[in-house]
Amino acid sequence: MKFTQKTVDAFTLPPTRNDVVVFDDDIPGFGLRVRSSGARTYVFQYALGRKHRRLTLGRASALRLEQAKTTARKLYAQTKLGHDPAGERLQRVASANDTFGAALKLYLAAAQSRLRAKTRRETERYTARTRVLADHELRTMWHALPDDDYGQVVKLLILTGQRRDEIGRLSWSEIVGD
User: Fold this and answer.
1) Is 11 helix (H, G, I), strand (E, B) or coil?
2) Are 43 and 35 in contact (CB under 8 A)?
């Protein structure tokens, strides 16, 4: 479909579908994602080896078509030069998290003298963790959990960030409000 403001505005979701992506004829990988909720977003999709990646460019209500096309053209050129825009975005996010980690270590070093021994040990144990589940891993895990007590407990662990033993020792009086 050739994207113009008219064709984008006029596109409707087929009645049998909840979600569909239509692609522009002019810019490879540039598309419009339409959902049954009415949400309409511009996307850019590309393949890098065997991996297929999709980036959200923005909501069609907030981003003019020409702006989205300009961004899609730049992304297409980058992928043709061997770049991985989605991977680079993930690295920037990870780098920002590393910056926070460095600031946290400086703060904790300065605060050590005020902390109790047990608090220091717990803090060191917590900051020693290096592996954190990525959003897509959490999403996959969430949807794979059974709808029983086990699944509910694991979802509670994910939502609260608590340790297994902390949730295991939780009593109803701590959950039920006054």
Assistant:
1) coil
2) no
Give the integer Cα–Cα distance in Å for 125 and 120: 9
Side-chain half-sphere exposure of 170, counting CA atoms within 13 A: 15
pTM reported for the whole predicted model: 0.56
pLDDT tens string 148-161: 888 888 888 888 88
5-83 fold? Double Stranded RNA Binding Domain (3.30.160)
Residue 19 tokens read as 């979600």
Which of 9, 7, 47 has the alpha carbon at shortest distance from 28?
A: 47
d(CA 97, CA 101): 6
Residue that is written with structure tokens 């080896």 in the block: 49
Would the pLDDT of 178 be above 60? no
For residue 84, give the H/E element and its range. Answer: none
Q: Find the helix packing angle between 65-80 and 85-111, rounded to 10°.
A: 90
| Sequence ranges of the chain with CATH classification 3.30.160.390 | 5-83
Contacts of 30 (CB under 8 A, 6+ apart): 3, 23, 24, 42, 43, 44, 68, 69, 72, 76
User: Token pair 């991977």 is at which residue?
Assistant: 87
Angle between helices 135-144 and 149-160 (to 10 degrees): 160
